[in-house]
Design goal:
Blueprint lengths: L2 H11 L3 E2 H7 L2 E7 L15 E10 L6 E14 L6 E15 L2 H4 L7 E4 L5 E2 L1 H12 L35 H11 L5
Parallel strand pairs: 5-6
Antiparallel strand pairs: 1-7, 2-3, 3-4, 4-5
Bound molecules: zinc ion.
Zinc ion binds next to loops.
């Protein structure tokens, strides 16, 4: 997708949408936007990171019939909870949304649905809806799925969670250091 296309999408998703009309018409939206286009997620955007979304509006049963199904998928650049280096994780989420018009109504939506409070005009910016969904999907304790690679020298394996390298080869800086100490006459 070209930059022009994604800019057009971001623009379209930023126009307040009439939710009632969208539900009545059963509108479906889908596409991709750069993660960096979401103001509150910009810090978590990997280089050229994109978010894919699908949104389907429909009229449900019950007291609050304005509803939608939203699913998102994106890659985020987060700080590893173990080594503090960047870890890129893919996140995805799928929610059923129930549109209401007040806090009080929000308390009474079905348990499997997420309440979204609309303004008096009944409109919402889809980009903000998508951004909210992504923020809720951010993992609390992101960690590298393999042993963390780069450990800075001032924090040598103190957490105990990270195995010391077992490689005793020439390339191992610890082996080289040990050899150096032996060579110096063992003053320690
Ligand atoms: Zn890590």
């Amino acid at each position: 997708m070209s930059t022009d296309d994604s800019q057009t999408q971001v623009k379209q998703l930023s126009v307040p949408l009439d939710v009632r009309a969208a539900c009545r018409a059963g509108e479906e939206w889908g596409g991709e936007v750069p993660v960096a286009a979401l103001p509150r997620c910009r810090d978590m955007a990997p280089e050229a990171g994109r978010l894919a979304y699908r949104l389907r509006f429909f009229e449900g049963q019950g007291v609050h019939p304005l509803a939608a199904e939203l699913s998102i998928e994106a890659s985020l650049a987060l700080d590893c909870a173990r080594c503090r280096e960047t870890v890129v994780q893919s996140v995805s989420s799928r929610s059923r949304l129930s549109f209401v018009f007040s806090e009080e109504q929000a308390e009474h939506v079905e348990t499997d649905a997420e309440a979204v409070i609309l303004g008096r005009e009944g409109r919402i910016k889809l980009l903000e809806l998508i951004e909210d969904e992504l923020l809720m999907a951010v993992p609390l304790m992101p960690v590298h799925d393999r042993p963390c690679g780069v450990i800075s020298s001032d924090r040598p394996y103190e957490s105990g969670k990270i195995a010391e390298p077992v490689d005793e080869g020439e390339d191992n800086p610890f082996a080289a250091l040990a050899a150096l100490k032996k060579g110096s006459g063992g003053k320690d």
